[in-house]
Amino acid sequence: MNDFPEFMRNPSNRIASQSQYTPGIEGFVFDGVDGSQMAIWTNRKGGISAEHTHEYDEYFVVVQGQYDIIIGGKRIPVRVGEEYFISRGMPHGGVSLPGTRTIHAFGGKRAVREKEDEK
């Protein structure tokens, strides 16, 4: 597969571009009743994710391509099928290859939908 299934890319769950750390990335979000979120991202052109932190833990797995996470100036490649855990408060950024797809779980609210952003 080169894309997530259509039902996972429902426009009502599209993440607003203003809440992205990587320009040009396409994402969709799903909310848990406990305030956690799951998100899927596709980065067709590749790109750089600006360094940032979260007040909650983050977990991700690479489904396609490669995402190099950067922590403390160290670049750590995360390849297809590999996963990574980022503790709350840990400054991190990264670089994704063109065509990279990832699935993320956040222990808090990370993403804002386009329609929420308009409010």
Structural notes for this entry:
The chain has 119 residues and is mainly β. It has one helix at 114-117, and strands at 26-31, 37-43, 47-52, 58-64, 66-71, 74-79, 83-86, 92-96, 100-106. The chain is globular. The mean pLDDT is 93.
What descriptive keywords fit this protein?
single chain; 4-stranded antiparallel sheet; mainly beta; 119 residues; globular; 1 helix; Jelly Rolls; 5-stranded antiparallel sheet
Summarize the entry for a quick read.
The protein is mainly β and 119 residues long. The chain is built from one helix and nine strands.
Strand order of the largest sheet: 1-2-9-4-7
Instruction: Profile the largest sheet.
Output: 5 strands, antiparallel
- What is the percent of helical residues? under 10%
Instruction: Give the name of the CATH superfamily.
Output: Jelly Rolls
Mean residue pLDDT: 93
Series of secondary-structure elements, N-terminal to C-terminal: EEEEEEEEEH
Q: What is the class in the CATH system?
A: Mainly Beta
Helical/strand content category = mainly beta
Shape, principal axes of CA atoms: globular
- The tally of beta strands, per DSSP, is 9
Radius of gyration: 13 Å
The rounded distance between the terminal residues' Cα atoms is 35 Å
In DSSP terms (H or I, runs of 4 or more residues), the helix count works out at 1
Indicate the CATH topology: Jelly Rolls
In what range is the share of β-strand residues? Answer: over 45%
Low-pLDDT segments, ≥5 res: none
What's the architecture in CATH terms? Sandwich
